[in-house]
Design a protein that fits this description.
Length: about 290
């Protein structure tokens, strides 16, 4: 005979109650609904750039805090906006789609994080804060509308391209980053978009999401993701003044090998993993070049 277990209880809508120990469960489910891995990756990327720029403790705390809160708001917005499609696709791993988290809870969390992002962003400096808020607004626009259009890649390119500016504009004199650095980051962001949707293209099409990768299909999107990652590597290797570093040549060789690999086998999960691996290597070079 099943025993009664104390803890969260489903309400009339199937969402779990938050009294008692249920509050901890709600917090964990909120974390799961925030897309924690991409949010952590972008936040760590910003932290590495901030450390390379030597912003100081106060500046680093404001910058990294703003990025972290902004990413939480974007993740929660994404899951709330995709609730109907996630349910239709049977994505039970998502707390909202599984009914273990109330939609209102996620809506409030997204709005609160967005509000908190404003003062944290502006604490890094007026110009820097404005740039970061534009990047966050682009991500929200993607979630709410642009992911279903042919310009679905644009918010990714814009948000990633503006991230170095968010760091440098908080420095004395508020300098803009060099054009090659912005271009390399933007290409990296666009590549991440094409690679990120590869595993879910069929489900996306079935639920009415027709961004540019879905319109191109998995094979062509894998090739586009690869070309963009290769382009980012080339810009970051050849853009700075002076000779190309040993790491730059190594990255270019990796990019060429990846292009051949994806060209021969553009279907399946391998292109996604390979492109994301190259993107990680691009990030490392971006941080090194940013510091120099």
């Amino acid at each position: 005979m099943p025993s009664r277990i104390a803890g969260p209880r489903p309400d009339a809508t199937g969402a779990l109650a938050t009294d008692g120990s249920g509050r901890r469960s709600t917090a964990l489910r909120l974390l799961a609904a925030s897309h924690p891995l991409p949010a952590a990756a972008v936040t760590l990327f910003a932290a590495a750039l901030t450390a390379a720029a030597d912003r100081g403790l106060a500046g680093a705390a404001a910058t990294v805090g703003a990025v972290a809160v902004g990413q939480l708001s974007v993740g929660w917005c994404n899951d709330r906006a995709d609730l109907g499609r996630d349910r239709a696709a049977g994505r039970r791993s998502k707390p909202l789609a599984a009914g273990t988290l109330r939609p209102r809870t996620v809506t409030c969390a997204a709005g609160l994080a967005l509000l908190l992002c404003v003062p944290l962003s502006l604490a890094a400096g007026l110009a820097a804060g404005a740039v970061h808020l534009v990047a966050v607004a682009a991500a929200w626009a993607y979630n709410l509308r642009l992911k279903r259009t042919a310009v679905s890649w644009l918010p990714y390119a814009l948000a990633f391209g503006l991230l170095p500016a968010f760091i440098t504009l908080g420095l004395p004199g508020a300098p803009w980053p060099p054009a090659w650095l912005t271009a390399g980051a933007a290409l990296l962001g666009a590549s991440a978009h094409f690679a990120n949707v590869l595993p879910d293209i069929e489900d996306d099409l079935a639920t009415g999401v027709r961004g540019l990768p879905q319109r191109l299909g998995a094979r062509r999107s894998a090739c586009v993701a690869t070309l963009l990652a290769v382009g980012s590597a080339a810009v970051l290797a050849f853009g700075p003044p002076g000779p190309v570093t040993a790491y730059g040549w190594t990255l270019l060789a990796m990019a060429a090998a990846l292009a051949v690999l994806v060209g021969r086998s553009p279907a399946g999960r391998l292109p996604f993993l390979a492109v994301m691996g190259l993107a990680g290597a691009d990030v490392a070079l971006l941080v090194v070049q940013f510091k120099s």
